């Protein structure tokens, strides 16, 4: 890592028959995290991968594994994903009625805890848990598939999330997932994001290095505000 903006290629758009090569390629190309989309055909209308793939990926990369659980019964699978080597485990508020318990269960296993919400879910549902999380993921498409279009109204939600995190002096990553590409990276980071998930926009290109560099360059044209003084209110 060591970058102010974290770029997390999503393997959903990689060639699964050559997964280790694809992962090495994005690692060499300058990725900061590896985003792994876990789908159960129930919470979202698609099926992808489970703990065995995470365990195999752990052996072939030094990139932190950013595992996005799009599954209804996250609590049941957290132990297995932790054991498999997930560095971040992110769960959906829509699928976790006892979110505080779920977040504690992730952290108890030494894994960084992330929470996320679908585009139509209000940010206010996460307000009480933000103090406990290492990552807040804002979905900018309806989850289930790669290659969808970024929903522009989500920019406002990103700005609001930035304000909430700053208010509690949180150092959590503010990650955005869905339809992120070189062309919109700047406005997403300007709204306050610090981590960008990108699947199709990276894996559809021949030159991953050039694409990741262009995305980072676009993001880093945003002038970061000076750290705010802490105000008691
Ligand atoms: C969507 C997944 C995303 C997806 C992003 O359900 O959570 O991580 O891979 O793909 P792109 O970048 O193509 O929108
Ligand atoms: Zn994802």
CATH superfamily membership: Aldolase class I
What count of structural domains?
A: 1
Biggest sheet overview: 8 strands, parallel
CA-to-CA gap between the ends?
Answer: 34 Å
SSE string, helix = H, strand = E? EHEHEHEHEEHEHEHH
**Pairing-aware structural class of the strands and helices?**
alpha/beta
> Any ligands, ions or cofactors bound here, and which?
D-xylitol-5-phosphate, zinc ion
Lateral arrangement of strands in the main beta sheet: 1-8-7-6-5-4-3-2
Which bin fits the share of residues in helices? 25-40%
Overall, the morphology is globular
What's the mean pLDDT score? 95
User: Helical segment tally?
Assistant: 8
Radius of gyration: 16 Å
Q: What's the total count of β strands?
A: 8
Oligomer: single chain
How much of the polypeptide forms β-strand, as a percent range?
15-25%
- Please give the CATH architecture: Alpha-Beta Barrel
* CATH fold category name: TIM Barrel
Poorly predicted segments: none
CATH class: Alpha Beta
Can you offer a commentary on this structure?
This protein is α/β, with parallel strands linked by helices. It is 34% helix and 18% strand. It has one domain (6-219): TIM Barrel. The chain has an eight-stranded parallel beta sheet. The chain is globular. The structure holds D-xylitol-5-phosphate (DX5) and zinc ion (ZN). Zinc ion binds next to strand 2.
List the helices and strands and how they pair.
Elements: E1 6-9, H1 19-28, E2 34-39, H2 51-60, E3 65-70, H3 74-84, E4 88-92, H4 99-108, E5 112-117, E6 135-139, H5 154-167, E7 173-177, H6 182-190, E8 195-198, H7 200-203, H8 208-219
Parallel strand pairs: 1-8, 2-3, 3-4, 4-5, 5-6, 6-7, 7-8
Bound molecules: D-xylitol-5-phosphate and zinc ion (ZN).
């Amino acid at each position: 890592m060591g970058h102010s903006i974290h770029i997390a290629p999503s393997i959903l758009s990689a060639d699964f028959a050559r997964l280790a090569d694809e992962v090495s390629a994005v690692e060499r190309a300058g990725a900061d995290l590896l985003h792994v989309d876990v789908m159960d055909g129930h919470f979202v209308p698609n099926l992808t991968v489970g703990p065995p793939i995470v365990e195999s990926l752990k052996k072939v990369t030094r990139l932190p594994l950013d595992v996005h659980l799009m599954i209804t019964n996250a609590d049941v699978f957290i132990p297995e994903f932790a054991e498999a080597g997930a560095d971040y485990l992110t769960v959906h508020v829509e699928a976790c009625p006892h979110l505080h318990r779920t977040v504690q269960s992730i952290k108890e296993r030494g894994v960084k805890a992330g929470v996320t919400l679908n585009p139509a879910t209000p940010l206010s549902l996460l307000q009480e848990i933000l103090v406990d999380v290492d990552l807040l993921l804002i979905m900018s498409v309806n989850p289930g598939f790669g290659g969808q279009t970024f929903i522009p109204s989500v920019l406002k939600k990103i700005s609001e999330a930035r304000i909430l995190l700053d208010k509690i002096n949180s150092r959590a990553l503010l990650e955005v997932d869905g339809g992120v590409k070189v062309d919109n990276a700047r406005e997403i980071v300007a709204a306050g994001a610090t981590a960008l998930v990108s699947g199709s926009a990276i894996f559809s290109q021949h030159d991953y290095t050039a694409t990741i560099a262009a995305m980072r360059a676009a993001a880093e044209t945003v002038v970061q505000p000076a750290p705010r003084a802490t105000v008691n209110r």
